[in-house]
Structure formats: C-alpha cells, structure tokens
Design goal:
- The chain is α/β, with parallel strands linked by helices.
- It folds into 3 domains: about 200 residues, Pyruvate-ferredoxin Oxidoreductase, domain 3, CATH 3.40.920; about 180 residues, Rossmann fold; about 110 residues, Rossmann fold (3-Layer(aba) Sandwich), CATH 3.40.50.
- The protein is built from 21 helices and 21 strands.
- Strands 8, 9, 10, 11, 12, 13, 14 and 19 form an 8-stranded mixed beta sheet that branches.
- Helix 5 runs antiparallel to helix 6 and helix 17 crosses helix 21.
- The radius of gyration is 27 Å and the shape is globular.
Length: about 600
C-alpha cells in the first residue's frame, strides 16, 4: 500500500449549488479532524444562488499542509452535469463514490479507478418520502455515511461531528443522523472495500486546534480592538465579517450600568456612504470600520483620499475576490494590493496589512485600529475569499495584553499647558501631527478637518510651497510606518542563494512547495511580507540572495511591481515573479513548476 493512501489524500465532493451540501461537507471535515488528522477544506462555489456546479475539497494531510491540492483522489459525484468532467479529474488509482444512475461508460469509465455505485436518490425517497424539500438535504447526509464506511471513520465520530454542526438545532441531529445511518448501512451491506484510501487516527496533530473562518476571526479582532461603529454594504465575500461583528456586538457591547447596547451599525445605501460614515465616526473619536471587496473599494476611493489628507483614522477590510469589474465574486485572488496601497487621487500611500492565517486575521484586525489612530490615517486589511470564507484549523486566539494606542491626542490639560498648537504641525519630525477630539473642553481644541489644501494650522491654502510641504510630511509619516507595521517573518539558512517572498494565503502553498523542493535538492529561504509600506528588512533579505521569487495570486505581480518601484535599483534584477490567478486557491505546484523552470533544474515529478 502506498504511504500516501493513509491520511494523505484529497476528497472532492461534486454537487449542485443550493443543495445543502455545505453542512454535510463540514460534518465530514470535522469528523476527520476529530480523528486527530489535519484537514483543510476548500469550497469552490458559483455566484448564483442555486443550480450551478459546486465542488468542495477536503484535503487530508498528516503533515498538516493547509493549502489546496491540485489533484484529488476520492470523488463523491452527485452532479450529473459534471459527471464526466469530475471523473476525468480523479488521480490514477483513485476511488469514485457516485449516484448509481450515472452511466459508467465511455470517458466516465476508467480502468485505473475504483467505482462505488450508490442509489442515493432512491435511498432518500425510500427512507424520507415524507420529508418534502428536506429530502435533498438528507441525501447529502447519506453520502457522509457512505464515505465514513469506505474510509473507515467510526460512526461515533460522525455523530459527534454532527452534534457540533447542529449544536444550535438539536432537533435536527436525530433526523440527520438517521440519514447518515442509511448511508452506513447501505455501504456495509453492498460495498466491498477495494481502494487503498484510509483514515487512521493520529495523536498530537490537532490537539487544541479548532476550525474558524478568517471573517469570523477578523470580526472578533474588531471587538477586541475597541471598534464600536461599523458601516457597510453587503458584498461577497466580505458580508459575513460584518454579520459576525454584529453578532459579537449584540452579545458583548452592553453598557454595564444601563444594560443598553453601546455600538452603532449602519447598513449604508452603498460603499461610498459606508466609507463616509467610517471617517465621520473616526473624526469624532470612535473606532470605526467597514468591510468590502474590490468593487466596493472602487467606490471608496474619494473618501480614502480624504482620510489620508485630512488625517482621519478608519479601518477598511477588503476580502479580495477575482476581478476586474464584478469578475468572479465567489473566487479568490490577491488582486487589490496595488489598488488599495495607492487608493484615491494624486499622491497617496496607505498602510496595508496582509494576514495569512486565522490568527493573523484576528490580530491584524485588532492592530489595525491602533495603527489607524496612531498614524491618523485609513488602514486597509487585505484578506481574501480563501482565508475569509473557508474554515481553517487554528490554535486558540490570544486575548490582547496591551492597551489601545490612541496616538497623539491632546486633552484639555495638554492644551492648557500649551501657548498654541497646529493641527498639521510636525512637532516630533516623524510626520505625525497632534489632534484633538470633538467635545474636548478647551477653547483651543477646535479645528477644521480639510480634505482640500491646508497649512500646518489647518487653514485653507492653495499655495504651491504649502501643498508640497504637506505631501512631504505625509511621506515622512509613511516612512515612520515602515518600522511600526507588522514586520516580515523570515526563515533563512546561511549561504542559501535563492529565496521566496510571499504574503497572505499564498504562504500555505509556499510551505508545501519548499518542502517538496528541499526533497528535490533545492534549498530556498523564505520571507513573508505582512504589511505595506515595505519594512527595511525586505531589502536586507534580498541583499543576501542571488535570486528571489515573488509569489502571489494575481496576474500582474502587484507586490513584485511595488518592490521594483521602491527597492534600490541594484536589487531589482534579482527578483522573479511567480503568479497564480485562475480564481481557485493556489496549490504548491503552481509554485514548484514555474520555479523549477526558472531554476533550469530538471523537472521532478511529484508522486
């Protein structure tokens, strides 16, 4: 038996959007994790509400790899429209669990696969004839039972997972478990195990880990970061971030004395209005945020410039999807990096945070509010659909230990000790001025917040030298941020000539690709960029290497382009761009294959 056949394969479930398969797939995913085996679920679904094909991959990896696998080994086929296509994609030696009525002939019949025919439709009609519309959902639970029997998942483990999935709907547990048992019993009585794929319980691999989506983690980070105002307009794949935030606010943002809620949620008429509310709240002293995706970012461009030049804090979450235009709203991408970094008109450069994990989605959400107030500026947190909407195994999120950083805020006592102050003076030569908040009880506290030209005293001005001084100070502030934003993380060995630079969810594919290439005799150092502006550590890292591959999920190599613009000229020639942009999460071979070609190394074929 191949070593890969045990705890190292991918299950693909092919169904129809709107059929209720998500719950079934998560029950299966959680059951495998309960066996102590690391697992990574990836949902690839269409943007329509119902009827088009959807695929759900469950990657089982004893080594703990969390990225998508390019190939799959076990197919659960329930969509007649994609039947031949799905069978064609199964890796040689794989297994196919399929609806019995699907024709196993022609291209759909392969001698190198094991087929398990199951009358899912007939079983659902036989056992749940009185359940009406529920029958199609219960049919999905029947396949959970079949797969559990084929892959040797204990019935008790499936039931535990089922109870977790429906913990808020206890009445649904019994009915769904009945459907699982239908699948188990059919498989026991009719299917003889003929494939090599097996799940064997492990220890120490998933201890203390839990499943969480990045959007939920970001919402919790907003709560921990002191956010009390959210203005938003729903858009895939960011909507659940604000929805989770609302849930957390209703549970936790309650005044201890009055028992009343102390937060404000506004579903605005569009993203432009949402951004205006965020910066209005930020000017008033509240910590405020919005969540959106690429098309919403477009509408926020003018307010982003206003926040940048008037120097008003606000946090914008961009859960990136495939574009341009509305593009593929249910596919993932890292296509907004350069757009968000310079969003608005004229000369602007924003702070951009780039989380790669659920833990960072949480931590960077919290930190974004500190950075926004410290630097008095918009801060963008760029997640993506893969991180935001998929479930990831993650360690417990840490409770924040440091107090909020409100930045350079002058109170009444501060103003009383000063003869005068100027809203946009660079007193400390770090580019960051001092500000006051509305309601501060001192006659000198007031000032105009101008998005138009202004001098150091916040007075209107269109004088050329005044405008240039303002822009130069904002550059100093941006340079100050280089040493304050989350620093890059590096893994280096002395003497290694080649390296990879990545960011965001590309990280997980890079981890696997490096292991594979190391086994093939190619050692690569690794630096993960976690924020813009670029830390000075990036240039230092590149200096130590002859070739540096910049890996990202967009067509044009956007971080690569930023680096070519901002790094010293003598380092630019060392950079090579590796790009993945088909809308599905990047896999390790999307890095391995072009890198091997660029290295001019004989191709090594993965098992």
């Amino acid at each position: 038996m191949s070593a890969r056949a045990v705890n190292d394969f991918t299950i693909r479930v092919a169904t129809v959007n709107g059929s209720g398969s998500q719950s079934s797939n998560l029950v299966l995913t959680n059951a495998i994790a309960r066996l102590g085996i690391p697992v990574a679920p990836k949902n690839v679904f269409p943007s329509n509400i119902e009827g088009l094909p959807t695929w759900f991959d469950v990657r089982v990896s004893a080594l703990g790899y969390q990225c998508r696998a390019r190939d799959f080994d076990v197919l659960v086929a329930l969509n007649a429209a994609t039947w031949q296509q799905d069978v064609a994609g199964v890796k040689s030696g794989g297994a196919v669990v399929h609806e019995e009525s699907f024709p196993c002939k022609g291209d759909a019949l392969r001698e190198d696969l094991t087929y398990y025919a199951v009358p899912f439709t007939a079983l659902a009609k036989e056992h749940f004839a009185d359940k009406g519309d529920l029958r199609k959902y219960l049919m999905n639970m029947i396949y959970v039972g079949v797969v559990a029997q084929v892959l040797e998942i204990p019935e008790a483990t499936i039931e535990e997972s089922l109870r977790t999935q429906f913990r808020r709907k206890p009445k649904a547990v019994e009915l769904n478990m009945a459907a699982v048992n239908v699948g188990l019993e059919y498989a026991r009585g009719h299917l003889e195990k003929r494939d090599p794929w097996r799940l064997v319980p492990m220890t120490g691999k998933t201890d203390g880990l839990t499943f969480m989506e990045g959007n939920r983690a970001s919402a919790l980070g907003c709560i921990m970061g002191g956010c009390t105002v959210a203005a938003w307009y729903p858009i895939t794949p960011s909507s659940s971030l604000c929805e989770y935030f609302i849930q957390y606010c209703e549970r936790h943002r309650i005044d201890e004395d009055t028992g009343e809620h102390n937060f404000a949620i506004v579903q605005a008429e569009d993203e432009l209005a949402a951004a205006g509310i965020v910066f209005g709240a930020g000017w008033a002293g509240a910590r405020a945020m919005t969540s959106t995706s690429g098309p919403g970012i477009s509408l926020m461009a003018e307010y982003a410039g206003y926040g940048y030049f008037a120097e008003v804090p606000g946090v914008i979450f961009d859960v990136q999807r495939a574009g341009p235009s509305t593009g593929l709203p249910t596919r993932t991408m890292q296509g907004d990096v350069s757009f968000a970094y310079t969003l608005s008109h004229g000369d602007t450069k924003h702070i951009v945070l780039l989380p790669a994990t659920v833990a960072e989605a949480y931590e960077f959400a919290t930190e974004a509010f500190d950075l926004a107030e410290r630097f008095q500026t918009p801060v963008f947190v760029l997640s993506d659909l893969d991180l935001g909407m998929n479930s990831w195994l993650t360690p417990p999120l840490r409770y924040p230990e440091k107090p909020f950083d409100r930045g350079k805020v002058l109170g009444a006592e501060d103003l009383a000790s000063m003869k005068a102050w100027g809203r946009y003076r660079d007193v400390d030569k770090d580019g960051i001025p001092y500000r006051t908040l509305p309601g501060t009880k001192h006659p000198n506290a007031g000032f105009f917040t101008r998005g138009t030209g202004h001098d150091e005293e916040a007075r209107y001005s269109e004088m050329p030298d005044v405008w240039q001084r303002s822009l130069d100070r904002l550059v100093r502030k941006h340079d100050t941020a280089r040493t304050v934003v989350p620093s890059p993380l590096a893994e280096e060995k002395k003497g290694t000539k080649a390296a990879i630079i990545g960011y965001g969810t590309t990280h997980h594919a890079i981890v696997e690709a490096r292991d594979f290439l190391r086994d093939a005799g190619i050692e690569l150092d690794y630096l993960r960029v976690r924020a813009l502006p670029l830390s000075p550590d990036v240039a230092t890292f590149i200096t130590r290497h002859e070739r540096v591959y910049v890996v990202e999920q967009n067509r044009d190599g956007q971080l690569y382009g930023i680096m070519r613009t901002e790094l010293p000229t003598h380092l630019v020639g060392r950079l090579e761009s590796i790009r993945h942009y088909n809308g599905v999460p990047i896999d390790a071979h999307a890095i391995i294959d072009p890198l091997l070609e660029l290295e001019r190394t004989p191709a090594v074929v993965a098992e």
